[in-house]
Specification:
Layout (H helix, E strand, L loop, with lengths): L10 H12 L5 E8 L2 E12 L4 E2 L5 E3 L4 H14 L20 E3 L9 E3 L6 H6 L14 H9 L8 H8 L17 H13 L3 H13 L20 E2 L11 E2 L23 E3 H12 L8 H8 L21 E3 L4 E3 L14 E4 L5 E5 L4 E6 L2 E2 L5 H13 L3
Parallel strand pairs: 7-15
Antiparallel strand pairs: 1-2, 1-14, 2-3, 4-9, 5-6, 7-8, 10-11, 11-12, 12-13, 13-14
Helix pairs in contact: 1-10, 2-6, 2-7, 5-6
């Protein structure tokens, strides 16, 4: 049992993050921690723009990529509460372009060798990544990865509606609900929210999540007067992440991303936010749900939604991680995990393509977020090292 009211000593956490910057694992990094809704510490280290010698500040903005899924999932849960749909509804009920999906025959590499889906894809399966869809970056050399790339599903010039139509023509990797594979299913849910609310996704998130929580620095496209606060993007050696080299990569994920409006609102990975704003989103999820979610809905944030014995895969190498399952918003740790994962039972967390991460722990009443901009930085050791240092700092 954790001691109520005790404050963690975060000196070791600060020291660990400073070393990451000194060792050129990260150009800049910031973090914040709260316990039971009470801020207890944090810090900023390194540079927002190394070349211009701009020190990282708390108010800098970050492309959070797949952390976007947390806001999207919370909006979906709100709409579920209000009766707009049920989690186990077939998504084709609302998006008829997803009727008649087909599934790759097991073991086949021929994309035309498919069979009909045995059951419709549900909204729950889209949120927990058991729908059978995928992401191009997970295995770009595989036939399905190449097909996704050719299809334009990640093309910024496609609207969510157009991208969903493309998704309806893609074969699924497996029968819906039978396996886990990280995917663009969240983007399909983004289109679902547009259809049931008759609003564009940016309006849905602004009116239902950002405005009620006072999140004034979170958006798909940064207003011109705030663009100078966007932290620069860097990328390391993608074949050897241990190499101490980080190069400026302003062209990633595509030129002028988040700086100029494009048709696509990337529901699974398109938001920009600040560290204080993201902590505002995490706060109600660590303190009972209000005003974001009802208490009975909040449990879906923390409860494993996968079938017994089904574990999620590492995004880095595709290996199963026993003990890591999935709730409706992110991975959930079902039993304490040793190195390299450093997970405690009950932890719910997720990260983004550029290394931003969040963590919720119901055991401790803990909420924390870490912000950095290292492209392809998910699941690198710096996040695991941070979690270990943070756990050591927790009061007993």
């Amino acid at each position: 049992m954790r001691t109520t009211g005790a404050t963690p000593n975060l000196a070791a956490v600060d020291a660990a993050l400073r070393r990451m910057v000194e060792q050129q694992k990260l150009v800049g990094v910031s973090y914040a921690v709260s316990l039971r809704g009470r801020p207890v510490g944090g810090g900023t280290f390194g540079w927002a723009d190394r070349e211009a010698r701009v020190p990282l500040r708390e108010d800098h903005l970050f492309r959070v990529f797949s952390n976007t899924k947390l806001a999207l999932s919370c909006a979906a849960l709100q709409l579920m509460e209000q009766g707009h749909f049920k989690l186990d509804d077939p998504v084709e009920k609302y998006l008829p372009e997803l009727c008649g999906l087909r599934v790759l025959r097991p073991g086949s590499r021929d994309l035309n060798d498919t069979v009909p889906a045995e059951r419709p894809v549900t909204i729950r399966q889209l949120l927990v990544h058991t729908c059978g869809m995928t992401y191009t970056f997970l295995d770009p050399a595989a036939p399905i990865g190449q097909l996704y790339a050719r299809s334009g599903m990640l093309d910024p010039s496609l609207t969510l509606a157009q991208a969903t139509e493309v998704a309806g023509r893609m074969p699924l990797l497996f029968q819906p609900g039978s396996d886990w594979n990280y995917s663009q299913g969240t983007d399909v849910v983004g289109r679902l929210l547009e259809v049931v609310t008759r609003q564009t996704l940016d309006v849905v998130l602004k009116t239902r999540i950002f405005d009620p929580l006072g999140m004034q620095d979170t958006f798909f496209f940064i207003p011109e007067d705030k663009q100078s606060r966007l932290a620069a993007m860097y990328v390391g050696d993608l074949k050897d992440h241990a190499k101490r080299v980080l190069n400026r990569a302003d062209q990633l994920p595509y030129p002028s991303a988040n700086l100029r409006p494009v048709p696509r609102l990337f529901a699974g990975g398109g938001l920009v936010t600040s560290l204080p704003d993201w902590m505002k989103l995490l706060a109600p999820l660590s303190t009972g749900g209000a005003p974001l979610l009802r208490p009975e809905t909040l449990r879906l944030v923390y409860e494993n939604q996968l079938e017994a014995g089904l574990w999620i895969k590492s995004l880095a190498d595709g290996a199963r991680v026993p003990g890591r399952a999935h709730s409706l918003v992110g991975s959930v740790t079902t039993t304490r995990l040793a190195a390299p994962w450093a997970g405690e039972a009950g932890d719910v967390e997720w990260g983004g393509l550029a290394g931003t991460h969040w963590l919720l722990s119901p055991r401790d009443g803990l909420a924390c977020a870490l912000m950095t901009q290292r492209f392809m930085g998910f699941e690198l050791p710096f996040w695991m090292d941070f979690k270990r240092a943070l756990r050591t700092a927790m009061p007993v």
